[in-house]
Amino acid sequence: MTAEVAETAVVYPGTVIGDGCRILDYAVVGKQPSLSPRSTTRREELPPLELGEGTIVSTGAIVFAGTRIGSRVIVGDQACVRERCVIEDDVVIGRGALVENDTTVGTLTKIQADAYVTAYSTLEEKVFLAPRVITTNDNFMGRTEKRHALRKGPTIRRGARIGAGAVLCPAVEIGEEAFVGAGAVVVKDVPPRKVVVGNPARVLRDVPADELLENA
Low-confidence residues of the chain, pLDDT below 50? Predict the structure, then answer.
């Protein structure tokens, strides 16, 4: 097996490093989470991180234990992937992006710089998140006990595209190949293959046929 691990990188014991991986300067891989006494995240000793073949963990990036990263993934400079995530093959996670715990990201998805993917989210394959997209998972913003049972991030279906600075409210579903315009605030589900814009987001038109994955 061949892998490149920078002298300044931190690799925690047990981390599984696939053939051809590159772990660059000051990256940290396989870290167990350090939780606040008030954290609502599950407290448990997590299994080792798994990095698939050809994956790159870039300078200053952090990938936690309990996560599985597929092949040929790029975790950009200063990006972070938290615990219990599944990142499938050929995903790009841009500089400074954060993927929170218990999230699934499908094959060939692109998460651009400074995007925030909240805990308990699902991104299917070939999703595109533009820079500084924000997702949320708690309608009660930390108050009332009933929030624990209702906490859920967005579900973003295959081929959907989310424009720069858009905000997705908790538990919304973005339909297959839908298009969310820049700066939109999505408070309810978006139908498949529709363009939505504005605050609150509203349907503007259909996604053009020549932009659909089958025709692109």
Answer: none
